[in-house]
Amino acid sequence: MRHVNPARGRPLHGLAVAAAACAVFAAPPLRAQEPISLEGLVVTAYRLAEPEWTVAANTTVIEGEALERAGIEFVSDALRQIAGLAVARNGSFGAITSVFLRGGESDYVHVLVDGVRVNEPGGSYDFASLTTDNVERIEIVRGPASALYGSDAVSGVIQIFTRRGAGPPRGSVSFQTGSFGTTRWQGDLSGGTGGLSYAFSLGGSATDGVLAFNNEHRQTTATGRVQANLDADTDATFAIRYNDSRFHYPTDGSGNVVDRNAYSFGDALTVNIDAGRRWADALETRLFLNVWESDRGTDDAPDSPADSLGFFGFKSLTDTRRVTAGGRALWRPSAGLAVTTGYEEERQSVRGFNQSSSQFGESSGSSGNDWWNRALHGQVSWVRDALALNAGLRAEDDERFGAAATWRTGAAWRAEASGTRLRVSAGTGIKEPTFFETFATGFVTGNPDLTPERSTSFEGGIDQEFGGTFKLSLTGFSQSYRDLIQYTGSPPAEGDPNFFNVAKARSRGLETEANVEAGRLRLTGSYTYLDTEVRDSGFDEGPGATFVEGSALLRRPKHTMTASAFYPVSSRVDLDVSLRRVGEREDRDFASFPAEPVSLPAYTVLDLSASFDLGGGRRPGFTLTVRAENLLDSAYEEVWGFAAPGRGLYVGGRVVLGGS
Fold this sequence. Notes:
- By secondary structure, the protein is mainly beta.
- The protein contains five helices and 35 strands.
- The protein has a 22-stranded antiparallel barrel. A five-stranded mixed beta sheet has the order 3-8-9-6-7. The protein has a two-stranded antiparallel sheet with strand order 1-2.
- It is globular, with a radius of gyration of 25 Å.
- The two termini are 25 Å apart.
- 45% of the residues are buried.
């Protein structure tokens, strides 16, 4: 890794306006038959490829080759080593996995896969089944980015880029087996000739989990990407990703192992169609169409009195869809100056069904709602010698909450002679209400008058290089959150809804990162200090409250340290070691009522992996990978009551055919 309220149901329109604009995902435009390299560039920060040093926000890039070499399967495991990020998984592989960035809520992170937003409406995203299959790189941009991306980009953006094909046809087949009954396989094919490139992959994994029964996790992932130069100045991209998963869970909400047949299931599809044209050296336009659809549900059929409530059954199915269309224009009127403008329209819909059975009889329910959003955004970037300035603004017109505006600005300065870089940035973010908070009926009543949750953030940092072998980065940040949506079981007046914008919180901290290159040895380390506090608890009060005024936010460690080392022992043997120390966190024990405040103890996890090139660089080639996770067999929990996996050993191999 490296640093660096109109009428509902209105149809999408405005694509004629969008025709003069450029896509949300603005990878560098293709020039006929020219290969593209993103080395030294960052795409996510400004939605176009820019040199890393010009980015004012603290940014990290994880290369896919490093993930493949180390045998890391899940994106969430790669993120555990990143400064400012905390990961909490509800126990075994496949369980709900949340990412907290700079102390923000887990639904404050905008997640993109090849430019397609994959967050649920309202911001939540479960990283449980997001694998590293066919991943070329991951970019993490900290700080609010709603001025570019809209809702959910409150505390940062994480974007996953899949591989692009190039050169002669190249294929590979890999497999892995190991602890907890784990198996994994993947095949891929890529290449590119003339103005056309392609990359496809198909993979799957299965595990028995860490608990004694009903803890299996199965998933399959397919990806595809085709890029074409239609002529010397026109390019088009089609990218698709599909994931199907099933997770068996014997636990109730407090972690007790009680159920032998409950499971959750889901599939997700993302499609990105993107086309661009360079009209002149100073003007480019792009158009895009993004589709994301997710079907998720649970199934807990009655099985025996040993079930959590005895002869209790429940089924649910939710279909969520988001279609986004629009475009963007990039104008470079002079050297170092770039002006971008964009327009987009979005429609989101949720359809749900549930059925329950108990000793009291059977009941069922269904719901269906949708809404649209339109947005205009603009950005100016200026680079002159050692100084880079950036400012952006976005205006939303939302069917539910009306108008909203967000902004962001930043500056970066570097002195190449001394290896010093200074950067400052500030901005605002928003997170839209969820469908349930807005439209719920029955025992809970939604509030159609909710407004977005909002944030304001400031950060400043310094990066210093010493002799080209050592780099140190320090970043301080402060974020405030307001208008947080809360539930109350006792509305202020009879007939009032159960959700209101009432709470406030803040987070501040320091991110320290270091990189060392000593010969063939590469060392990285980080330390994050995080101070969070509830400023206004709203309706949440009493001994079981999860949002207590003056207390820290749950599951956010105050101290986190990571270290990793990569050492090529020889031309055929590579060694990767990673260590992370996570400090104490506050949580709640939901086995009692009211929930009892608890403290999750600090823990240390050591991972070790080695890869052996047994093909000697020839084709076909074979690489053997051995990976040990939690080598010290630390016993710990990231969520109270849900034990994390102990020591695991995994052995895999990869055969490569073709290529050069």
